[in-house]
């Protein structure tokens, strides 16, 4: 997806961090630290099914992260004890403390409950399509496009849960349901699951995060006119997801469909072949339906809702990782940690849409603990707030669309100095 570019002259609001504390700018790390600390290799992928569909790969061990954050926690506790809140200091708590505050039942995955959400969404999608086709009125079609595109987005969120393994403890069920849901909306399940895993493992790291992160000025200047136009000029960034699947973000190479892409490990190649084949099968189904029903009818029933879904995906993912009035910083080198990166995400309140897209707006706890099922995220967030304290910012109820348009318009065609993203985070 498109990535944000920042500059002092592009009109963004100054850093205004959660809790009202003052921001701190960290000096650029020495070249030797630019690559950042090495992360442990992902857990081995299980392959016990005839179709070689893999189980979702687990994120970096939180136990290791807890051990790593002990010293940071002690330093931060001393720094913040009896003093003014310092947003540049490491958080005065670790992952273990946040996890301990979350009720144990919030970690329980109920496959039957998860499947009821799938059944609900699929029935709504089919019902909307049948009703729109039957009425076939231009008074109805715009309403159908908005509703169906939103339901496509809901299907994507459920497939996203399958990729995290929060859908159920059954790896085969996660993979089968994930393939069906994601392929139906033209998303390669394993390809996106793996790149999304990279995002979770490196969020907030300006050089290693997968998408929506700042570009250095030199890289931005090296982009051709068309790339700049499509990536940083409204409304194109809201439709960036398909391009991201085929060509990733500026400065990165590879494709979510190519098993030889640098996105994937050698032992993941067969998974990518499986997902690409499922994607192609869906393209074939759509082609057959177009032949039977006609291109105009398929445009109205599927293509336009698909574009609405893409806009939802790009808008929501952007809003969860960038502020509107608040400018969230990025780390690199030793300044970054899994906990700090997770705390740079934002919760968003989408009102009536919260239930429709499965409470994906409760994003902070999801980023820290993606194994928690979506139907427990709200309760888990409420339980964790006393621990997070000033590090948690209550979501705004002003809606997301205006904020997204404002952010993207204000960052259009801006570029960043090489070190302008070296801001310390809460």
Automatic annotation (TrEMBL):
It comes from the Eukaryota. Residues 18-39 are annotated as: Disordered. Pathway: Lipid metabolism. Residues 137-392 form the Fatty acid desaturase domain. It is found in: Membrane. The chain crosses the membrane at residues 117-135, 230-247, 272-294. GO terms for cellular component: membrane. GO terms for biological process: lipid metabolic process. Keywords: Membrane, Oxidoreductase, Transmembrane, Transmembrane helix. Residues 1-130 form the Fatty acid desaturase N-terminal domain. PANTHER family: OMEGA-6 FATTY ACID DESATURASE, CHLOROPLASTIC (PTHR32100). Belongs to the fatty acid desaturase type 1 family. This is Uncharacterized protein. It comes from Eleusine coracana subsp. coracana. The gene is ga26083.
């Amino acid at each position: 997806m498109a990535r944000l570019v920042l500059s002092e002259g592009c009109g963004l609001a100054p850093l205004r961090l959660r809790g009202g504390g003052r921001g701190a700018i960290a000096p650029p790390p020495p070249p030797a630290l630019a690559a950042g600390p090495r992360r442990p290799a992902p857990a081995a992928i299980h392959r016990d099914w005839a179709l070689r569909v893999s189980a979702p790969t687990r994120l970096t061990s939180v136990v290791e992260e807890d051990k790593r954050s002990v010293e940071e926690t002690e330093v931060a506790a001393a720094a913040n004890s009896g003093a003014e809140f310092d947003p540049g200091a490491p958080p005065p708590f670790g992952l273990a403390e946040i996890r301990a505050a979350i009720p144990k039942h919030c970690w329980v995955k109920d496959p039957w409950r998860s499947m009821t959400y799938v059944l609900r969404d699929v029935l709504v999608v089919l019902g909307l399509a049948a009703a729109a086709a039957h009425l076939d009125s231009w008074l109805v079609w715009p309403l159908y496009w908005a509703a169906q595109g939103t339901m496509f987005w809901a299907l994507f969120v459920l497939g996203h849960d399958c990729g995290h393994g929060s859908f159920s403890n059954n790896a085969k069920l996660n993979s089968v349901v994930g393939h069906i849901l994601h392929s139906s909306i033209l998303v390669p399940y394993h390809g996106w699951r793996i790149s999304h895993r990279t995002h979770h493992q490196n969020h907030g790291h300006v050089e290693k995060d997968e998408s929506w992160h700042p570009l250095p000025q030199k890289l931005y200047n090296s982009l051709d006119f068309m790339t700049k136009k499509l990536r940083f000029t409204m409304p194109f960034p809201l439709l960036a997801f398909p391009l991201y699947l085929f060509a990733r973000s500026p400065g990165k190479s590879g494709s979510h469909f190519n098993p030889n892409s640098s996105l994937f490990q050698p032992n993941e190649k067969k998974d990518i072949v499986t997902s690409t084949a499922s994607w192609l099968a869906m393209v074939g189904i759509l082609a057959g339906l177009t032949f039977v029903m006609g291109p105009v009818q398929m445009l109205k029933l599927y293509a336009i809702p698909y574009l609405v879904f893409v806009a939802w995906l790009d808008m929501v993912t952007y809003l969860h990782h960038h502020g509107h009035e608040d400018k969230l910083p990025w780390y690199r080198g030793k300044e970054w940690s899994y906990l700090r990166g997770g705390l740079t995400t934002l919760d968003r309140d989408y009102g009536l849409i919260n239930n429709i897209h499965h409470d994906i707006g409760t994003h902070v706890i999801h980023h820290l603990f993606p194994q928690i099922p979506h139907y427990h995220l709200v309760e888990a967030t409420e339980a964790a707030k006393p621990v997070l304290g000033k590090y948690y910012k209550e979501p705004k109820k002003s809606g997301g669309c205006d904020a997204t348009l404002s952010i993207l318009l204000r960052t259009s065609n801006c570029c960043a100095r090489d070190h302008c993203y070296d801001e310390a985070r809460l």
